[in-house]
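subagent[fold] <- orchestrator: predict structure for attached chain, return C-alpha cells only, no commentary.
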Amino acid sequence: MPPADITNINLKVLIMDTDFYALQAINSYLAWDRRTRVTTLCESPDEMWAFIDRAPLAELPNVVLLDSDHWLDDPRGLAETIQHLRERIREVKVLCLGQMSSSALVEVAADAGAKGFLLKGDVRLQIAWAIVYTLHHDFVITSTIARVSEGLFHPRIFRARRLPEQRQYPELTDRIRQAIRLCVVEGMPAHLAADEMGISLHTIRGYIKEGYRIMEAYDANEYPVDMTPQERAFMRFTAFADERDESSNGQSEPDEE
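subagent[fold] -> orchestrator:
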C-alpha cells in the first residue's frame, strides 16, 4: 500500500447516533485525526435535519455517519434518509455505523447509495481510517457484515471491499501497548498512567518512547511538520495493516469510482 496522503484530506463529518456515549467516543477518536473535522453531533434524525437546514454551505458535511440501529425495524426509513441526504448535500458520503448487523439494512443501504456499512465492534479505534478508506472504494463493509451478507445477491455488496485489519506491531509488548493506549488513545497524563500500571514515571516514559520508535519504524507515511508526536502515535496505533496482499478480498486493485 503506498504512503497515505495525510496533508491533503480535510473532511467535515456529521455524526448522528442515538447512543450518547457512542456519539462522544466517535467524536473523540475523530478529533485526533486531522483528516476529519466533526461539524456537529446529533442524537436524532430531527437534530441532523435541523442542522443541515440552517448550516451555511461551507459547513455542510462531506461525510455523514448514520447510526443504523435507529432503523433496525424500519429499513425503508434508512433508505429514505440516505437518499434525502444525497439529494440535499452535493457529493456527500453516507456511512452506516451500528452495533447490530442486519442483512436487510445492508441491502437497502447499498441500494440507496451509501458508501459503506460498518459495525462499531469491527471498526473500533479505526473510525477515521475507515472513513478515508471509503473514499477510494464503491462500497465498504466490515468482516461481520461480510458474513451476514453472504446470501445477498446485490452487485455492490458482492463486490464490496472489506475493511482491512488493524496494523500489527509485533515488537510492541503488552506493557508498552497498555502504556500507549492509556497515554495516547485515552489521553491520560503519564503520572496517572504510571499509577494505573503500578510502575514508575520513569518506566512509563521509557515505554512510550520505545513505543513511538517501534511504530515509526513500520510507517512510511508523511505527516505535517507541526503534528505532535502524540498525534502521529495515535494515527500509527490505529492504522490499517499494509494492503500489498489484497487476496483476502478477492481483488487485486481498488474499486475506484
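orchestrator: received. Logging for downstream: The chain has twelve helices and seven strands. The radius of gyration is 19 Å.
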